[in-house]
Specification:
alpha+beta; 60s Ribosomal Protein L30, Chain: A; 2 domains
C-alpha cells in the first residue's frame, strides 16, 4: 500500500513538471520524463488492481472465516445436544436396569421363601406319615410342589369310595400338618386303571369313580381342621397312568390318589402384575 502512494505521488509530480515547465527541459529529458510518467501510471494501475484483488480475497477470507465459525458453533451445539440426549438415554437405561434388578431380587426372595417353606413342609409330612409302608404311600417334592401318593389298597376297597380305617388314619395325620399351614393349596386327584367299571356299578365310569373318591378324601381333611377353601377335588380317571395298564402290577400302581401341596402363588403373581403395570 505504501508503494502505491509513493508511485502516485511521483506520477503527480512528474505531471505538474511537464505541464508547468514544458519549455524548461530538453526534448530528451521530456521524453524520459514522459516515459517515466507512463511507467508510474501503469504501476499505479497495477497496484490499484492488486489492491482490489487482495481486498476481495480478504473479504472472501473473512466471510469464509465467519461462515466456518458459525458452522463450527452450530456443529458444537449439535454435538452437545446429541451428547446430552445420549447421556439422558444412558441414565434412563441405567435406571430401568436397576429397577428390573430390584424386581428380580424381590421375586427371587419370594421364590426362595416358598422353597424353604416347601422343604419344611416336606419334612413335616414325611414325619407325620413315617409309619406307613412305602409301597402304599410315598412323599416327594418335584416341580416346586409336594406330592403325597396313596395307593388304593391304603384308602379304599375295590370299587368303593368309602375310605377305610387305615386310610383315615393316614389322612388325619396329614390333616394335622395341613391345618397348621393354611396358605398351602391342596389338590386331591383321584386316579384309576383302565379297566371299565362293571355294568352293575353305581358309577358311570372310571372318571366318576375317581371324582367321588377325591371328594371323600376332601371331606375327611375338612373334618380334621383343613380349611375347605384350601382344598380342590379332581378326578383324572384312567387318563394319567404312572405305569402300563397291561400288567396287574401296573394297574395296581395306577389305582391311586395323589394329594398335591402347592405354595400360595398370589404374592408372586401380585408382584409380577405390579411389574407389568410399571413396565408399561
Amino acid at each position: 500500500m505504501n508503494r502505491f502512494f509513493l508511485f502516485r505521488a511521483a506520477a503527480s509530480a512528474a505531471t505538474l513538471c511537464l505541464l508547468a515547465f514544458p519549455s524548461c527541459v530538453s526534448k530528451k529529458k521530456y521524453t524520459e520524463m514522459t516515459s517515466r510518467f507512463e511507467e508510474c501510471r501503469e504501476a499505479r494501475a497495477t497496484l490499484e488492481g492488486d489492491t482490489l484483488k487482495y481486498g476481495k480475497v480478504t473479504r472472501d477470507l473473512r466471510e469464509e472465516m465467519a461462515f466456518l465459525r458459525a458452522s463450527a458453533s452450530q456443529d458444537i451445539q449439535n454435538l452437545s445436544g446429541e451428547l446430552q440426549a445420549k447421556e439422558n438415554m444412558l441414565q434412563a437405561t441405567s435406571e430401568t436396569l436397576q429397577e428390573r434388578e430390584r424386581r428380580i431380587q424381590e421375586m427371587s426372595a419370594i421364590i426362595d421363601q416358598q422353597n424353604q417353606m416347601l422343604s419344611s413342609l416336606l419334612g413335616k409330612v414325611k414325619d407325620a406319615l413315617i409309619g406307613f409302608d412305602s409301597d402304599e404311600l410315598t412323599v416327594q417334592m418335584k416341580e416346586g410342589k409336594v406330592y403325597v401318593s396313596l395307593s388304593e389298597n391304603l384308602l379304599f376297597s375295590s370299587g368303593s369310595t368309602q375310605v377305610n380305617k387305615e386310610g383315615q388314619n393316614a389322612l388325619q395325620k396329614l390333616a394335622g400338618v395341613l391345618a397348621k399351614n393354611p396358605d398351602i393349596k391342596v389338590m386331591i386327584e383321584g386316579h384309576t386303571d383302565s379297566i371299565p367299571v362293571g355294568q352293575s356299578s353305581r358309577f358311570k365310569d372310571n372318571w366318576d369313580l375317581s371324582v367321588l373318591r377325591a371328594t371323600s378324601i376332601v371331606r375327611i381333611l375338612s373334618d380334621n381342621g383343613v380349611q375347605p377353601a384350601q382344598v380342590t377335588a379332581a378326578g383324572r380317571g384312567e387318563y394319567f397312568p404312572v405305569a402300563s395298564n397291561e400288567s396287574k402290577e401296573g394297574r395296581q400302581k395306577n389305582r391311586r390318589t395323589e394329594i398335591i401341596l402347592s405354595p400360595d402363588l398370589a404374592p408372586l403373581f401380585e408382584l409380577m402384575s405390579r411389574n407389568d403395570s410399571g413396565g408399561r
